[in-house]
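Quality-control log, excerpt.
Job 1 of 2 completed; input and output follow.
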Amino acid sequence: MSSSAGISVYGFTPVLSSASTLLETDPPSAAPVVFPVAQTPIPSTPLAQRIDAYAKAHLPTPTYNHSLRVYHYGIAIKRYRFPTWAFSDETYFLACLLHDIGTTEENLNATKMSFEFYGGFLALDVLQHQGDSKNATAPKDQAESVAEAIIRHQDLCQKGKITAVGQLLQLATIFDNAGLYSDIVHPSTIEDVTKHFPRLQWSNCFARTIEKENKLKPWSHTSTLGEKDFSLMVLGNTLMAPYE
């Protein structure tokens, strides 16, 4: 694969970091349509299947379900608002499955690094070096794109650029975690996604993870979102409250 093709298919295309500015640019003329889970299937490649099995084995069920919701919401957002973004569903799927790998009890206590940064390093290793065949390992560019997106998925900047796959990961995670940008996903899509991947009191679960990391690592990147404000935002997620 050529370098320019890799930039596109693996999601390295630079886009605005500011989600609000990005969404205000060229606003759509119609409301979002329904994208049920059946219309946004997960990739069936050997690599996707291997990382799916890895995520199921290592993530608690609420976190695994969140990761799958982020995938399906993200694909719905991409089709509605960013249809020209050319990165593969597989690349985005890998980023979704691994974006919270650093939040497990084991991994939070395994390092003094912020969970997103450690998660990015774990993703690089899992994607490139733990496959049982050539087809089940990720190319270097793809693995680095996933790691970059994971490292920056809580980096909610208002200036500068981010990769397209990183921006979509941000949008879908903040949508599921805090209910922000509620107008970019159809309510029936939310209903169908949560039916397939129940929240299982996710708001309380994730708020506890935020508080745990801030207590363990007062220097963590999560603290830049507000040591109390971020967990309160998650707990105050009115959009997803009916599905908790």
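Job 2 of 2 completed; input and output follow.
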Amino acid sequence: MKNMSWLSLALAFISILSAVILTMVAVAIQHPGAVAKATVETNLVNGFTSALNIALSYASHNAFFSVIAELKEPRDFPKALTLLQCIDISIYLVAAIVIYTYAGDSVASPALGSLSPLLSKIAYGIALPTIIIAGVINGHIACKSIYTRVFAGTDRMQKRDLVAIGSWIGIAIGLWIIAWIIASAIPVFSNLLSLMTALFASWFSFGVPGAFWLFMNKGLWFASWRKIALTLLNMFCILIGVIMCALGLYSSGKAIHDDPSSASFSCANSA
């Protein structure tokens, strides 16, 4: 993770920031007369899948446990998380407002596809390090999570013999094959993101943290007004997680079913 953190800073962040700036400048030049609407008419499926996509932008919580475990000082994690979210929110807001203002409600998903074919290819090329490194980091975390569970309580964690290395390679290959199958079976980018949010981010972002707090404060839920407020807040978070999971599965599943672009394993443009 130490090496991946430097790659994230030197390549991933710089590349995606450059691609976003290019997109904002280009879309302002190419679509100066687009109409941006403050509100639009929608239905439950489209509205809820859009909300799920927004939630996913901040929902790397499944990676937090592995990142905390490898920090030199785990207590520094809240500071790192606060800095990350402040930067995230600022960049997301600026990029979303500028791009939507000029691209209008016809903005593509991802937004890099809103440019001309040439500029879109250039933007994707600049963003490629981010796409690769982000996938590798999440893949690494998933592999580590499975590996530590399989070999928990053994000395295999400290070895680099044939079994250890072979097991790691086998887990990695298996996960990447599964990821390729899922991405090919659900080729529509926004619908795939909403499904991921419903299945995983709903719990990692809302349900599990709320349950953790209630478990850690068992017997003290109503000890003071502050505890009562926090108890109600965490129960509300769990409720949000349940709604996001249940209603999200329905809306994302229906969106995938109804989308005319859902041509599984067709190698079609999924942007």
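Post-run check on job 2. The radius of gyration is 21 Å.
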